[in-house]
Each structure stands twice: as structure tokens, then as C-alpha cells.
Design a protein that fits this description.
The protein is of the alpha+beta class. It contains eight helices and 16 strands.
Length: 377
């Protein structure tokens, strides 16, 4: 994440709830985004503090919180987790807390350049994640190059990208609407479908439009359209520089950004077009979330252990030691590779570890009934 210094010092927050806000990352019409740390903790997180006009609109606020939590329930490896939603104080402050993603944004990756196979693999992961959301009735509606990340920093000479992660769920009903008291519209107009401004809520076709715009930018390093007029002009030429599969990709992008949403393909059709030209397995259905990266260094057995966490003490969180899973709610299913002998869980209250337990993975299912009573299934 890139840091921003555009926030008036008088408006900058120091804390929200139990979180210390260490650095401002972004300021937009939806609010402020900080890098923060929970009191007593060490792991950084991202804290989006919602703008006042969203907090003061009960229906908008309720839907924003519902969508953010619902996207988290999907437990998809390419969708950011929501650690918790804060609703604090007077004046009221509402914030969505997610893990901090240390990798570059799609915008940064496109600017620096990326090999075509890696670009297509990254977009396939984005398509799969959005498709899972659409099947569950959730639309992103605000997909831009600044809210798609590589999960980790990219090392010099690295041939493949880390896992792609989509952030900023919960605003599909807000994006495209006018900001109260201004003539501005929520969202980056370069990636909003032509029909979005003024609509009550984004449609699945709006996400397809954004996929087309992001795919073009990732392949060329440039934005697709120079103006709003170009977006609505069916005669504007869309072309890619000389590259493998240029004709197929040009046609796909052209169909994704069709001015009429009824002319756009479904995400399943986008995937079907990409699948034959993307490296093996990059367009395949992803493995369950929670798979430890250590397993990637072994010949995988293809066997998984599902750890059912059925309760947790009030105010406590569960962290997977040595992993990225932060379990803030129960029930919760943690899926791990059976190639690992065990997974270690840590119970934390107010950021302080209170107890750890090792759960063996030699059974297909195990149940953890906190505080850490483990049974086989």
C-alpha cells in the first residue's frame, strides 16, 4: 500500500476503538484508510474509517457493514478477510478492519510492467473471486487497480506473482452515487461502467466492465479510455500492442467494456476465454483458504484437514501461529493441508496471547470447542 499525505492534520485520527492508527494510506470520498495496530498487538492491519455522510445514513451504513461481513463469510483466498467492524463513540465512528497487505497494487504492477502469463494468471484469480461473490449475491461495484493487490512484495527476478487479493467490499450500493453536498460521484470514473453513475446499485455487469478495464491496464500499463465520452463511444478502437493471443484478448476486452451491459459476457465466459491461454491451474478453482504456504515446498498429497472452530470467548480472537488467518468469529472452518503434521492456534484477549494448542491434521476433520478442547471426527 502506498502512503498518502493528503489528509488535513486537523482531521487525522490517532485511534479508533482498540486500534492505534499509525499511518494514513489513502483518503477518498468513502473515508480514510490507515495502517494500524491493535493495542498490545504487533501485526499491522488496515483500518478504513467511513466518511461522515455514510455513517449518518442508516440504510447505507447497514448495507455497507452487511456486504463487508458477507464477503468475508465466503472465505475465498483472493478476497480480503474482515477482522472486525468497529462502531464506536460520540461522535460516532465506524471502521472496517482488515489484514494489512504488504504487496503492490495492480496499479503499481501495471506501471512497472509484468509478463503476460503472470498478468493473465492474476486476472484469472480476480475473475474467480468475483464469480464466487456473484454466486453468493454480492457485487463489488468499485473494482479499481488500487484495491487489487499482490498478497506479498514481489522480489527482483520473481517469475510468478503472489496470490491476488481484492479489497474494499461493501460499497456496491454507494459507488456511482453523488457525494452529498457536492457534484462529485463516489468511485473512480475510469473504472465505473457507463451505466453506474446515478443507479441505485451496481450490477454484476459493472464488475465485468471493470475486469475488462483492469485487464487492458495490466497488459499495457495504460488506462483504457481517456475520457467519459470514449467509454460511451462504440466506435472507439481498442487495440493491444503486439503480444501472444492479442486478437483473443482484444476481443475479450472489447466485449467486457461494451457500453450496453447486456452485451457483456458473464464472468464464467471470461474465465472460459482466459483458461486455454493461462498457465496450468491458474484459472482452476482455488484450493480452500487457509492452506499453509509450507505445503508448496513439498509434493502435495491433495489431502486436507478441516478444523471446525465452534466457539470462542467474548472479546477474544484466534490467530493461526505462523500463518495469516485471524479468526474473529465462530463457528469457523479452517482448512489446512494434511501434508503438515499439525497447525498451531493461539487465543488472544486484548492483543495478548493467553493460550496455544497444536491440532494434528492426521484426520480429515477435527473440532475445536474453545477454550481449546479438541475432538476427532
Amino acid at each position: 500500500m502506498a502512503h498518502s499525505d493528503s489528509l488535513d492534520p486537523e482531521l487525522r485520527l490517532e485511534t479508533v476503538g482498540a486500534y492505534r492508527l499509525d499511518a494514513i494510506l489513502e483518503v477518498d470520498r468513502l473515508g480514510q484508510v490507515y495502517m494500524g495496530t491493535r493495542a498490545g498487538g504487533r501485526e499491522p492491519c488496515t483500518v478504513r474509517v467511513l466518511a461522515r455522510h455514510l455513517v449518518d445514513a442508516p440504510q447505507l451504513l447497514e448495507r455497507t457493514i452487511h456486504e463487508a461481513r458477507f464477503s468475508n463469510d465466503l472465505r475465498h483466498p483472493n478476497i480480503i478477510d474482515v477482522i472486525e467492524v468497529l462502531d464506536e463513540g460520540a461522535p460516532r465512528q465506524v471502521a472496517i478492519v482488515t489484514p494489512f497487505v504488504d504487496g503492490p497494487t495492480l496499479e503499481q504492477i501495471a506501471r512497472e510492467g509484468i509478463e503476460q502469463p503472470a498478468a493473465l494468471a492474476m486476472m484469472c484469480q480476480v475473475v474467480l473471486a468475483l464469480h464466487a461473490c456473484h454466486q453468493a449475491g454480492v457485487v463489488h461495484g468499485n473494482l479499481t487497480p488500487t484495491n487489487v493487490y499482490a498478497a506479498e512484495p514481489i522480489r527482483p527476478g520473481q517469475r510468478t506473482l503472489p496470490r491476488a487479493v481484492i479489497t474494499e467490499f461493501g460499497f456496491s450500493h454507494v459507488v456511482g452515487q453523488r457525494v452529498p453536498g457536492t457534484e462529485e460521484v463516489h468511485g473512480d470514473l475510469a473504472y465505473l461502467a457507463p451505466e453506474q453513475p446515478g443507479r441505485a446499485m451496481a450490477s454484476t455487469a459493472a464488475d465485468v466492465y471493470a475486469v475488462g478495464a483492469l485487464l487492458y491496464e495490466l497488459l499495457t500499463g495504460s488506462r483504457l479510455f481517456a475520457s467519459e465520452t470514449d467509454k460511451r463511444n462504440t466506435s472507439v478502437a481498442i487495440g493491444l500492442p503486439s503480444m501472444p493471443h492479442a486478437a483473443v484478448l482484444t476481443d475479450l476486452i472489447r466485449r467486457c467494456v461494451a457500453p450496453d451491459p447486456n452485451d457483456r459476457p458473464t464472468l464464467e465466459e471470461v474465465r472460459a476465454t482466459l483458461e486455454p491461454i493461462v498457465p496450468d491451474e491458474d484459472c482452476a478453482t482455488p484450493r480452500p483458504t487457509g492452506v499453509d504456504e509450507v505445503a508448496a515446498h513439498h509434493e502435495p498429497s491433495g489431502q486436507w484437514c478441516v478444523i471446525h472452530i465452534v466457539s470462542r470467548p467474548a472479546g477474544a480472537t484466534i490467530r493461526r501461529v505462523g500463518g495469516t488467518d485471524i479468526i474473529a468469529t465462530a463457528p469457523y472452518d479452517l482448512v489446512v493441508s494434511a501434508d503438515l503434521p499439525y497447525v498451531e492456534l493461539e487465543l488472544a484477549l486484548d492483543g495478548h496471547a493467553t493460550r496455544r494448542v497444536r491440532v494434528r491434521t492426521d484426520e480429515t476433520e477435527r473440532t475445536v470447542d474453545l477454550p481449546f478442547v479438541v475432538s476427532e471426527r
